[in-house]
Amino acid sequence: MRKTAQCKTLVLWLLMLLLFCIPFAGIGSDAKGNYIAIGFWSEACQTFLQARSNGLDLPYRHWLTGYLTAVNKLTKSTVDMRGTTDIDGMMVRIAKYCVNNPRHSFSRAVESLVRALYPKRMTHMPKSPSP
Question: Which of 28, 69, 79, 109 is 20 to 30 A distant from 87 in Cα terms?
């Protein structure tokens, strides 16, 4: 049991470290909203769609969940940006965006997703059921 707790602690620290390494549009951008995209951010939507059609979108899923964790942490009054949308639903939304905008970057697709999810985000932790 102690080893499990140590693994969870290590994972949480690694996630926190990741949060500080991710570029955010609007936070680290210039006055015109320009910023340099690194990693999957700079990939074209058509590259994502090709990976997805070949069942190779797992790295995109992992990247997206890490990004959303950072958004949760850095967005005021936000506990969970996903609201009731699961990862599959988010990936479908990103894929639809990319089908319509194949030359846009994956980052623009994710930004579009976050804008769509924002109104339905969870703004406080749900209460635990009483014992």
Answer: 28
| pLDDT tens for the 131 residues of the chain, in order | 566 666 566 555 555 545 554 444 445 567 776 666 566 667 899 999 999 999 999 999 998 998 899 899 989 999 999 999 999 999 999 999 999 999 999 989 999 999 999 999 999 988 877 66
Q: Which two tokens stand for residue 18?
A: 């990741």
Is residue 64 in some structural domain? yes
Q: Which two tokens stand for residue 51?
A: 């990976």
Number of structural domains the chain divides into: 1
Question: Do 90 and 82 meet the contact criterion of CB atoms below 8 Å apart?
Answer: yes
Has residue 130 been placed in a domain? Answer: no
Which residues, in sequence order, are bridge partners of residue 105?
44
Cβ 87 vs Cβ 95: under 8 Å: no
The pTM (predicted TM-score) of the whole model is 0.69
Domain extent, residue 83, equals: 2-120
- What whole-number distance in Å separates Cα of residue 20 and Cα of residue 118? 21
